[in-house]
């Protein structure tokens, strides 16, 4: 089985598994317990937080809050900093459902929520954003890398616009598809919150993290025993946190980036070469995409059917994100100006540093064959 | 090291670990993915939900919602069913912080929240509760087994009182210290919500579950991709859910209950026998306590000091719950009428089906020796 749906989730690395097992068995003690073995686990959790901060180029100041998922982390950033006095909140149309649906939930309660559109290249429309920003804006959430298209938003530019038009606004960035993949230096970006997911990086599912420049700006959205600086109660997910640490330690962002760029390029070239020349494959038109995600639309072919056919031939890819896979339509591709047939015919191929050249060569062949076969049937 | 702090957390069982590893590596696929391997994982998660329902003696009707912790599950039950139109919400003073602090949070927002006191035996004061209940009550949350004292509340009686005085009220029960330990037949109890924790039963940390008689009565508190019937978004914590399944399968409630009753009895008898006869150990006065928890107070000795001393001699026990271990005071013991010295001198010894007679014999000896040593020093 060739797995090229790494933007949805990834298998855990062997050494991450070792820590997962170690901290679930011999080192399982509750990190809130006052005896030595408990306190040691508390300190071990802190060491993971320190590593996260190091990877983000910021000092550790009790500013990492572990959550039960990246979705919970984005919810904490948005709902945990929301105040009824907020006059305007700005989100991009391209946000992951964890941000987009949280924004919609606030909007349904009467909060003034505005959405900035995307450009054809998948990035936020910076001109529209600039028009939207003024001193009434209290909160902005714009993702770093689109989970659907791989488009990389210019977060530095967004920070600069925020500083210019609404310096007091809170700025959250969903870094789920970027962290550990695209070098991100938070010391150079004026972000208030940054969301991280463990399972996209060969860590465990069920673990997210929120970096908070100033945790005092947050209120908890889950109440209880007061763990995580009283911002996220619930027994710490010790084993997953320690497994994530190991997964993180293994990541060489720059080396992986170069490797994935090459794999992505090869996959795309192979796919184009092997696909029936009568078919015009539609790729996102942007020179600065994350190499980890390759979004392609095939006119007149249903992406869903293509995914099932690839599955039967040993290749796993997806229609858009797993989170929206079961939903109809695709607001993001619609916003990019894709017509109905390009939206229906969209699939996402996504890579990880576990992907091999063999996966890419065989995977692109299977995909092209399936496209050709479906094309023959439908024409 | 003798571990008798099982009410705070437990080590994972060997076979639970096997599933944890399997579903983190070869079977890691996103349960929301539409291809076969993803869908299979979705069905596998459902099989865990079916097992949970079976253990609760209710049919599976998409009525189990997995969360990132039991704390999140209680929060979902309370905040997810809360409506601004609520006239009165009733909680017991003895609730775990995940319920108690959520109640306080609502109270701080002006919601009419009332707390029913405990009897000296640790159970809810049913007479006071009866007086508190009337048709204006919209929500009640009372735990099944106290995490501090082991007192078992009469949930059937509480259901009956609810039916009599406020039949339309929503009734939540925190079953964290009861599920898998004390036979609980939800078919015979008219509960709307029941909260479960995995890591108290040799399953993984970072996983809770909420049973909902009618999930339609809930609104999500975390928004996103729509997982868990749109009630708890975030990629499903597949490996932990499957590990919990195995942990559950291994549990023989009745057999374990009898074993733990015997161990608890032996521990208590040994402790009394070996403790300096000048010391009057104070136990919770109730014939119907959970055998998994033994709460004992030693006058004039600081529980915290005792925990550290036991730790240094190879025994791990706790002062109250891990969640409140770092807090001062103890609202539950105060409510039971304990004086300051009994509250300060309280420790909790807690067992699991992994506890052995050897643990109990050596553990009770260490505890008695530490008590005697501290007593000599302080008098």
Share in β-strands of chain A: 5-15%
Taking the alpha carbons of the first and last residues of chain A, their distance comes to 29 Å
Can you tell me the overall shape of chain A?
globular
Total strand count of chain A, please? 12
Label the CATH architecture of the largest domain in chain A.
3-Layer(aba) Sandwich
Secondary-structure element order of chain A, as H and E?
Answer: EHHEHEHEHEHEEEHHEEHEHHHEH
CATH topology of the largest domain in chain A: Aspartate Aminotransferase, domain 2
Q: What level of helicity do the residues of chain A show? A: 25-40%
Give start-end ranges of low-pLDDT stretches of chain A: none
Describe it.
The structure is a homodimer of 379-residue chains. With 379 residues, the first copy, chain A, is α/β, with parallel strands linked by helices. Chain A has 2 domains: 2-9 and 252-378, Aspartate Aminotransferase, domain 1; 14-249, Type I PLP-dependent aspartate aminotransferase-like (Major domain) (Aspartate Aminotransferase, domain 2). Chain A has 13 helices and 12 strands. The first copy, chain A, has helices spanning 14-22, 36-56, 70-79, 97-108, 126-132, 155-165, 238-249, 253-274, 303-312, 322-325, 331-335, 340-344, 357-378; strands spanning 2-3, 64-67, 88-92, 113-116, 137-141, 170-174, 193-197, 208-212, 282-283, 293-297, 315-316, 346-350. In chain A, strands 2-8-7-6-5-3-4 form a 7-stranded mixed sheet, sandwiched between helices. In chain A, strand 5, helix 6 and strand 6 form a beta-alpha-beta unit. The first copy, chain A, starts with a strand and ends with a helix. At the A-B interface, helix 1, helix 2, helix 3, helix 4 and helix 7 of A face helix 1, helix 2, helix 3, helix 4 and helix 7 of B.
């Amino acid at each position: 089985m060739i797995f090229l749906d790494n933007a949805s989730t990834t298998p855990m690395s062997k050494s991450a598994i070792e820590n997962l097992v170690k901290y679930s068995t011999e080192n399982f003690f509750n990190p809130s317990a006052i005896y030595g073995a408990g306190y040691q686990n508390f300190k071990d959790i802190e060491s993971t937080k320190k590593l996260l901060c190091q990877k983000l180029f910021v000092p550790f100041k009790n500013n990492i809050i572990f959550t039960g998922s990246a979705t919970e982390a984005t919810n904490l950033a948005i709902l945990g900093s929301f105040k009824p006095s907020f006059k305007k909140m700005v989100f991009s149309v391209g946000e992951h459902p964890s941000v987009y649906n949280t924004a919609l939930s606030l909007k349904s309660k009467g909060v003034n929520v505005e959405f900035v559109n995307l450009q054809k290249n998948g990035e936020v429309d910076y001109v529209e954003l600039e028009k939207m920003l003024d001193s009434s804006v209290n909160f902005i959430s714009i993702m770093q890398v689109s989970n659907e298209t791989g488009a990389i938003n210019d977060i530095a530019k967004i920070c600069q616009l925020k500083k210019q038009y609404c310096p007091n606004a809170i700025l959250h960035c969903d870094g789920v598809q970027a962290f550990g993949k695209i070098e991100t230096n938070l010391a150079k970006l004026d972000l208030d919150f940054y969301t991280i997911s463990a399972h996209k990086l060969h860590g465990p599912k069920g673990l997210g993290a929120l970096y908070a420049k100033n945790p005092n700006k947050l209120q908890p959205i889950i109440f209880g025993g007061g763990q995580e600086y009283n911002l996220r109660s619930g027994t710490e997910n010790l084993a997953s946190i320690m497994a994530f640490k190991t997964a993180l330690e293994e990541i060489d962002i720059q080396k992986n980036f170069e490797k994935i760029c090459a794999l992505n390029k090869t996959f795309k070239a192979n796919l184009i070469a092997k696909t029936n020349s009568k078919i015009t494959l539609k790729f996102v038109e942007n020179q600065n995409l994350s190499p980890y995600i390759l979004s392609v639309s095939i006119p007149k072919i249903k992406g869903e059917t293509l995914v099932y056919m690839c599955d039967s031939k040993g290749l796993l890819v997806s229609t858009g994100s797993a989170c929206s896979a079961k939903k109809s339509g695709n607001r993001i591709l619609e916003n990019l100006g894709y017509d109905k047939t390009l939206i229906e015919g969209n699939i996402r191929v996504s890579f990880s540093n576990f992907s091999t050249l063999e996966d890419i060569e065989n995977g692109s062949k299977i995909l092209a064959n399936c496209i050709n076969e479906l094309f023959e049937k439908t024409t």
